[in-house]
Amino acid sequence: MKVSNCTIAKITAYSLLLMTAVMLVCVLLIDQTIFDSVLFAAIVLLLVILTKIRIVTYEFSGGCVTIRKIHPFSFRRFISPAVEFPQNYIRDYNVNHHMVSGSLVLKVRSKRNKKYAVKIKLFGFTYAQRQKISSSLVSIVSQNNFNQTFN
Questions:
Q1: pTM of the model
Q2: b/e string for 56-80 if b means 16 or more Cβ within 10 A?
Q3: Torsion of CA 44, 45, 46, 51, to 10 degrees
Q4: Looking at the DSSP assignment, which residues form a beta bridge with residue 95?
Q5: What residue ranges are annotated as transmembrane (predicted)?
């Protein structure tokens, strides 16, 4: 199973780039100091948001959970995983649903009994996509807890 926010992230990135270009043209054409400073501050804010946008891909296949992140304007063919671990390491999870953005917190325990929490922002995922992620994690966690009680 593979779930991604590719289309929403690319649409958002191109929209922000277009708005930044329009504001930059406005700064060049309008000669008012106060309005220019407000537009310049808005341009800086849009550029900061543009650098933070990521395409996130959640993939569960072959007993391994892989999460990849990449910027929408990147042209690399191979994307190295941001997080990758076997499914039996996942002990608990939490998917927070918000209007536009959400977050996924995976609680992981390694072979050496070290506990980790991995938090991933789910910007641009639809409610149905977040439900798919949640349902796959429910099966993983229930299977891991079942195996843990009998081991």
A1: 0.81
A2: bbbbbeeeebbbbebebeeeeeeee
A3: 90
A4: 104
A5: 12-30, 36-53
